[in-house]
Every structure is written in structure tokens, then in C-alpha cells.
Design goal:
The chain has 273 residues and is mostly helical. It has helices at 5-12, 16-24, 43-57, 62-69, 76-108, 116-119, 128-140, 142-155, 160-182, 190-205, 212-235, 245-252, 256-271; strands at 3-4, 32-33, 39-41. The protein folds into 4 domains: 3-74, Multidrug-efflux Transporter Regulator, Chain: A, Domain 2, CATH 1.10.1660; 78-123; 124-156, no CATH class; 158-271. It contains 13 helices and 3 strands, in the order βααββααααααααααα. Strand 2 (32-33) and strand 3 form a beta hairpin.
């Protein structure tokens, strides 16, 4: 069946203007144009329009959609399966939000208690699958749970401006350490060791008491930390936005890893024993 612009706009719930614009930018061309100048669309174009609307629903820009649909290996069935998976996860998240709303209503009515964490359950960008994984992990690693609980207690008083100031200090530290590496300074040089002392102070500002054993372990774990975080992000993409600055810097300049590791060990041997 052939559809005019008006008919397709009504069928798909889009505007005639949108269809004309899609045609103009080469995103959705009509199947053919009749002698009277009318544009006509057929089943192939309907399926393409469906893909466009799915991608728009998922937050993609028109330029990105055009690039995706224009790929020679684009597979409509695989794309639909992918859309289905994303929507399935969104449905799970919506259900989680409904639970949070119901619990909050009951809490405000005095019918049940609610922890601070439960107030925000489902309101961040972590998928339900990751939240389940995180809960199970913490249950099986009580020492790790205690560490994060203690860290939360030590840092919860920090105001947003204090956190921003900390980020700026951290950025300056990594900039200066990178310069030290580029200048080929020795890890036990006075300048580098002064920078490592700043790193210690930054860690303590964040609420982490720095001891000899902790600092040596941190230094030794640097190479694995980068690898482990990358593997974790591959499995849980929502963590990408939470990537610590130390991971970002060391991924960009991998040669900093052994430099930082040796500098930290030198500092620990001299100052933390």
C-alpha cells in the first residue's frame, strides 16, 4: 500500500513538517514521487520511520540516527531486539520508582519506616540489575560495606562547594604529576615526593586515613584498578559517568601507572612506617 505524507503522518503520529524535514536531511526519503509532486511511502519506509521513532524515544539525535541507519551492516531485527531490551530495563526501573513512591506515601502517613537510602531507591542511573549485583556483593563482603559506610559518615557533611574545590585540587595534582613525568623526574625526587604528600592530604580530606599498609596496597593495586574498572563498565555501562578522576587520568596516560606506583611506595617507606 502507498501512503501520502498526510496519511503517514496520521498513522505514525508525527507532523507533516517532521516528515518533510526527514526527507530534506536524507533521513527518510519517500519511496517515489508521483507526477503531481506528491510523495508516497511504502512498507520499507514505514519500517524505517518506526526505527527513527524508537531511536528518538531512546534519546538519540537525528544526526546519530542517520549514521546508524546508514550503516551497511544495519540489521532491523537486531535493532528491534536491542530496543526491546532497553525498554524492558526501563519498565523495571519504572516499577522500582513505583515501589519508592508507595513506600514514601506510607512513610509520610506514618504507616512504615524508611531509611535514607530507600528514599532515593531507583532515582539514580543504576540499572536494577546492577543494584541487585551491588547489594549481593556488599552482603558477601561486609568489610567493604563497613569501609563505605565509614567513608559516608566522614564525608556526608561536605557541602557541594567543598566537593567542587576538592575536584579542582585533584585535577591540579594530576596535572602537576604528569608534568613531573614528562620532565623525567625521579620518583624519589623532592618535587615528586611533595606531590605525593599532596595526594595523601587529598585522600585524608576525602575521609580516608592513610596508613603504610593502605598506601602500599593502593600503589600495588593501581594497574589492576584500571583494568577492573574498564571490565566493570563493559558489564555495567551506567558506571561510566562515575569514573573516578584517577582512572580517567591513568587510562589517558598509562605510563603514569608505574611512575605513580613507585612514587607512592617511596613515600610510604620514608614517611608512613
Amino acid at each position: 500500500m502507498d501512503y501520502t505524507v498526510n496519511q503517514l503522518a496520521t498513522l505514525a503520529g508525527v507532523t507533516i513538517r517532521a516528515l518533510r524535514f526527514y526527507d530534506k536531511i536524507g533521513l527518510l526519503k519517500p519511496s517515489f514521487i508521483a507526477e503531481n509532486g506528491y510523495r508516497y511511502y511504502q512498507e520499507k519506509e514505514l519500517l524505517i520511520l518506526q526505527q527513527i521513532l524508537f531511536f528518538r524515544e531512546l534519546g538519540f539525535e537525528l544526526k546519530q540516527i542517520k549514521e546508524i541507519l546508514g550503516q551497511s551492516d544495519f540489521d532491523q531485527i537486531k535493532a528491534l531486539a536491542s530496543h526491546k531490551e532497553v525498554l524492558r530495563k526501563n519498565i523495571k526501573r519504572m516499577k522500582t520508582l513505583l515501589v519508592t513512591i508507595d513506600k514514601t506515601i506510607n512513610y509520610l502517613k506514618g504507616k512504615e519506616t524508611m531509611t535514607e537510602k530507600e528514599l532515593f531507591y531507583g532515582l539514580h542511573n543504576y540499572s536494577p540489575e546492577f543494584q541487585a549485583f551491588h547489594r549481593d556483593f556488599m552482603k558477601s563482603h561486609p568489610t567493604m560495606q563497613k569501609f563505605y559506610d565509614d567513608l559516608y559518615e566522614r564525608t556526608k557533611h561536605l557541602k557541594p562547594e567543598n566537593r567542587e574545590a576538592f575536584k579542582k585540587e585533584e585535577a591540579i595534582f594530576w596535572k602537576n604529576l604528569t608534568k613531573a613525568l614528562d620532565k623525567k623526574l625521579s620518583v624519589d625526587s623532592q618535587e615528586v615526593q611533595k606531590l605525593i604528600k599532596q595526594f595523601v592530604l587529598l585522600s585524608e580530606k576525602q575521609g580516608t586515613p592513610v596508613t603504610y599498609d593502605l598506601f602500599i596496597n593502593m600503589a600495588t593495586m593501581l594497574p589492576r584498578m584500571i583494568s577492573n574498572f574498564q571490565k566493570t563498565v563493559e558489564k555495567w555501562p551506567e558506571l561510566k559517568s562515575k569514573e573516578p578522576m584517577i582512572v580517567k587520568v591513568l587510562k589517558k596516560r598509562p605510563e603514569l601507572v608505574p611512575f605513580m606506583e613507585e612514587a607512592m611506595k617511596a613515600y610510604a617507606e620514608k614517611n608512613l612506617k
